[in-house]
Every structure is written in C-alpha cells, then in structure tokens.
Amino acid sequence: MLMRLLLIASDVFCPRSMRCLVIALYGVLVLLCGSGNAVAQPAQFDGTQRPVALGFYEPEGVAVDQYGNLFVADADTYWISEILAVNGQIPPNPTVRLLYRDTVSNPERVAVDRQGNVYFTDLDTNNNLGNNTVKEILAVNGVIPASPTVIQLGSGLEYPYGIAVDSSGDLFVADTFHQAIKEFVAVNGSIPPSPTILTIGSGWSSPEAIAVDATGNLYVADSGNHAVKEILAVNGSIPASPTIVTLAANYCSPDGVSLDSQGNLYFSSYCDTGIYEILAVNGTFPASPFIKTISGAGEGRFTSVTVDSNENIYVGGVFSETQVPQVYPSDLGPVRIGTTAGVTPLTFTFIGPVTLGSVSVVTQGAVGMDFADAGTGTCVAGGYYNSPSGYSLCTVNVTFTPEVAGARFGAVLLKDTGGKVIVTGYMQGTGVGPRISCAPPS
Coil, strand, or helix at residue 176? Predict the structure, then answer.
C-alpha cells in the first residue's frame, strides 16, 4: 500500500518535465523533484506489443465494446477517446474520435455498455480530490454524439479506479481508498439521479479494477492483497453476504481485469508489467485454476487490460506516454518443427535522439536460426529516432520457425553505431515434433 501511495503521489503532484523521488520520512511523504539528468537510459523494451494508436499522454483506462471499438481514458489530458474498429478489428492508423474532455478532473478508468453509453471514474484532482465520482456519457442511437450529454452518478467516493457495467445497467465501482466495492443500482436499465449504492463484500485492500460476467459474478483486482478474486452471484445478483473466492494470489499489485468470450479472466500486474490469463474450464474456474503468463519483462506500468471478442488484448498505463498498445504473448507456445508461427511485434521506446547501428535477432545467442526478423518492422539499421516529446517508438517483427524440439529462447538486440547493445527484447517458443537421432556405427 505504501509503495502504491508513493507512486500515486509522484504521478499526481510532480511535474512531468522533472525527475522525481518520493520518500517516506518519519511517516511523512516527501516529494523531491528536479530537472537533472542523473538517469540516462537511451532505450527500453516495452514488450511483445504494437502501438495501436499514438498521441495520448497517460492512457490509464481502456475498454472495448461488442463491435471491437476501443475506448480510452487519458488521465492527464482529461480526454475520453474512441479508437474505431473496422470489421471488428483495430486497423493500422485507425480513426480516433475525441468524445469528451472533462475540463476539471482526471478520468482514470472507463467502461461501455451495450447501448453505447460510456462511463468513467473521475478523481477531480484539480479540486484537491474534492468530488471523486463516476460520470456517464450518454449515447444517442448507440453512438456518442459530437456534443454529448454527461451526467454525474453519485459522489462520496475516494480515489475510485475500476468500473464495470452489467447487462441490467447496474454499475460496479472499485472505491479504492475506501477499501470497498460499490454497486450503483439501476432502475429500468439506467442509473437514477440519486441511486441506491450498495457495498459488496469486505476485507479489500486498495481494490483497483472490476469486471462482471454474463451471470453476474464479479472479478476484482485486490491490489493491496496482491490477489485476484471472484465474488459469486446467486441467481444473477450479488447477495448481501457473498462468497468470495481467490483465483490468483501473490501477484504484485494486480490492477486490471477483463474477461474474454470463453470466460477466461485476464489481469495486469502493476509491479512487473505483466499480463496473465486465468483459464476457465467449461465457463467456470476450478479450485486451483491454471494461470498462464501472456506477456511480461517489459518496462512501463500497466494499469488496465481489456480483451475483445477476437481475443485481442489491449492495455492502459504509462509507457512512452503516447501510445495505447495491443499485447501479444511473449511465449509463442508449441509450434511444429519446420512450421513458421505468425509475426510477433516487439516494441522499443527511445528516450531522446538515437541512431541505430544494427538490428539483430538471435536464437540462444546465434543468428540465422529459429527466430528471425520478418523485415516488416520500423526498427532499421541507420534509422534516426527522435520526436518533440522526447520519446520515439519502433518495432521489430519476429517470426518463429523451430529447428529442433524443446524450449527455444530468442532475443532482439538493438545496437548503436559503435556496436554497443543499447536494449534487448526477449521471446520464447517450443518446438514440437519427433527428435531424430542416429545410432552409433557398429
């Protein structure tokens, strides 16, 4: 909890043009900011991902609708935006609609219902966190109009983060600093001006994200308890004293949850920038579910995750402070020997101007083997990367064609013009097939 508070204090109160250090001194938080260049890192590996859209500042909240459109809550520009899908997929260079700018507050997380109404949690940081609340942007015929109506739904929250809406219009909110999960009860499918607000369960520690499935079960990223939990519904609603089941434990500050169409649950981990999948069995979770690592080892901070009907994974957070990324598995899984798996993008961020000397893809230290550069990325030898924001992105698209059976480990090495490695990205896969061995001569 203390670490999370330190990071929040730095995010909220320290100018982004300065480098900051937050320390706890005799129980008091002390924020130190400066403009020095004590830390110099020319590049970072963002993970196995591609930027879906650029131009954001701190896109902490993401959500998708049934059509594949992606909604973004950009905390530091106050914008709620929509990235438009085409035939259910976000295309290259997509159209981005600016739906609404909340001129006095920081939108943190976002949700969308099947009627196209958009909801977001509002920290009201410009008024010293005086009116933390939830707001709804009303759709007209399923679409947010150019000048939408925005209404406030209740108040009295303290640092609300996660938000979800069910098929009945009930709204669920992670009231983070009150250590509570709240339900805003809908009447005839919508939240009334003075809604009934119920508190669900107990024992939470900084709950940060929430999701709801078709049968009314809730899923909570219980960040301070380092766990992901399920609140079981009875006949489609949460009872007064619900059963709460821990699905994943000992993950550092999980802060995003999302369900896919098969009932599998994805969650993001704040500390290790990881995305994990809890696998359902016939639509429900067994007593000890299998948890699969989707992506990890990148830099930045994930703060939310959402999954569309095509199993595309998008995350919100703080990356190069401009992008919303789509995440791919860093473990390509089993692939038959001699068969090429699909292209996996690895994204890198350059901090300040950089000229690349070379780009190489290696398999367990050797070039020209299982992992190879597809040649379609934007990281190229001799390329100069610089932007007014100070952050520049490039990708290396990698294919995997296992030559032998067993686990195979690959890496992308970016070097400067002097031949020095400035950043390394990692991936892995497993070759599947018969092992051929020769008997010794008789």
Answer: helix
How far apart CA 195 and CA 15 sit, in angstroms, is 37
pLDDT digits (tens, 9 = 90+) for 264-278: 999 998 887 789 999
Beta-bridged to residue 348, according to DSSP, are 45, 394
Q: What is the 3-state secondary structure (H, E, C) of 339-373?
A: CCCCCEEEEEEEECCEEEEEEEEEECCEECCCEEE
In whole angstroms, what is the distance from residue 45 CA to residue 47 CA?
6
Contact (Cβ atoms closer than 8 angstroms) between residue 115 and residue 165? no
**127-141 pLDDT, tens per residue?**
555 568 899 999 999
Output 21 or 263, whichever has higher pLDDT. Answer: 263
Closest by CA position to 87, among listed 309, 315, 259: 309
Residues 60, 56: Cα–Cα separation, whole Å:
10
Confidence of residue 294 (pLDDT cuts 50, 70, 90): confident
**CB count, 10 Å around CB of 185?**
15
DSSP symbol at 216: S
